[in-house]
Design a protein that fits this description.
Blueprint lengths: L10 H8 L3 H15 L4 E11 L28 H13 L4 E6 L6 H16 L3 E5 L5 H10 L3 E3 L6 H7 L5 H13 L3 E3 L2 E3 L5 H12 L7 E6 L16 H14 L4 E4 L8 H10 L3 E3 L12 H10 L3 E2 L1
Parallel strand pairs: 1-2, 1-9, 1-10, 2-3, 3-4, 4-5, 6-7, 7-8, 8-9
Helix pairs in contact: 1-8, 2-9, 3-4, 4-5, 5-7, 8-9, 9-10
The protein binds S-adenosylmethionine (SAM), 6-(5-methyl-2-OXO-imidazolidin-4-yl)-hexanoic acid and iron/sulfur cluster (SF4).
């Protein structure tokens, strides 16, 4: 294994990289990026909320928690037909992966059959499949794998230390246990975090440290910028400094050279130049579509123009 793809990173080492002069940092991350990825390609996925709202967890950033009054309209668990229709639209718009998200604390066995049917429908269309359904057991992970699931998204969000300020209804270890079940079943891991939760710089570095020191790097690392939702405790949070956001993308790229780094939630409030710098620093996947799960995404038309201007090929 080359040095750059080394599995063990020291926290000090990552702090030094994060704190290096901005131009040195993004020059380094861009060089690593070019070595392992096409610098002019961005993978695009479309997200669909298959069960919206009413979640018993208390994640302080989330529109879908029952603990906060966010004026979100709840929706029942959608049908397989509704999912197929949306997946076809996403495919026709050029998405290569279809990601289905449910506002659940954990997957119930009674919902497993429908989920596996949805995965099979997405696969029939020739797209990659991804789900994010909360905690899952080892047996459930194996069932999802057998249905053809490619990726499972399950974020660690922030550092272990800061996590308990953000969510009290589950622990960091619960998240790590589900990640292990996903990995053991042979499903690709999509795991990242959110910036803007009121965390310190060190919490962001520690998040990357945990991810980069997992037995295997997650194949996909989403870096979300908090979407501020009225009614949630984090609605009035201070905006993330844009350079800090780019530094975190660059750190993820350097620490996990082969992983896809996803510029995830928050693009709607980023200008084109900011997004271009994120791509330069090492981000190479995005969510494409008018909506994320419950909030606005950068529009499809806007993204088409932006990718064309940058001569970036969607894949
Ligand atoms: N309930 C499942 C879970 O928590 O794993 C799946 C859905 S949840 C909405 C998926 C991820 O979206 C969360 O882990 C979080 O990282 C991200 N997310 C949720 N609300 C967000 C927000 N307002 N801004 C940015 N990211 C958010
Ligand atoms: C991830 O890291 N970001 C996506 C996806 N995984 C499921 C979700 C972002 C959600 C943003 C808030 C919303 O639309 O509800
Ligand atoms: Fe529920 Fe997921 Fe939202 Fe947390 S992030 S409240 S677990 S839907």
């Amino acid at each position: 294994m080359s040095d750059e793809v080394k599995k063990k990173w020291g926290l000090d080492e990552l702090e030094t990289i994060y704190d290096s002069p901005f131009n040195d940092l993004i020059w380094n991350s861009h060089n690593i990026h070019r070595k392992y990825h096409d610098p002019n390609a961005v993978q695009i996925s479309t997200l669909m909320s298959i069960k919206t709202g009413g979640c018993p967890e208390d994640c302080k950033y989330c529109s879908q928690s029952i603990k906060y009054d966010t004026s979100l309209s709840l929706e029942k668990f959608l049908s397989v037909d509704e999912v197929r229709e949306q997946a076809i639209i996403a495919k026709n718009n050029g998405a290569s992966r279809f990601c289905m998200g449910a506002a659940w604390r954990n997957l119930k066995d009674s919902n497993l059959q429908k989920i596996t049917d949805m995965i099979k429908e997405v696969k029939k269309l020739g797209m990659e499949s991804c789900v994010t359904l909360g905690m899952i057991t080892d047996v459930q992970a194996q069932a999802l794998k057998s249905a053809g699931l490619d990726y499972y998204n399950h974020n660690l969000d922030t550092s272990r230390e800061y996590y308990e300020k953000v969510v009290t209804t589950r622990t960091y270890q619960d998240r790590l246990d589900t990640l292990q079940n996903i990995r053991d079943a042979g499903i690709k891991v999509c795991c990242g975090g959110i910036l803007g939760l009121g965390e310190e710089k060190i919490d962001r570095i520690k998040l990357i440290h945990v991810l980069a020191n997992l037995e295997e790097h997650p194949e996909s690392v989403p870096i979300n910028q908090l979407v501020k939702v009225q009614g949630t405790p984090y609605f009035d949070n201070t905006n993330v400094d844009e350079f800090d956001f780019i530094r975190t993308i660059a750190l993820a790229r350097i620490a996990m050279p082969k992983s896809m780094v996803r510029l995830s939630a928050g693009r709607d409030s980023m200008n084109d130049q900011m997004q271009a710098l994120c791509f330069f620093a090492g981000a190479n996947s995005i969510f494409y579509g008018e909506e994320l799960l419950t909030t606005k995404n950068a529009g499809v038309n806007h993204d088409r123009v932006l990718l064309k201007k940058l001569k970036i090929n969607p894949s």
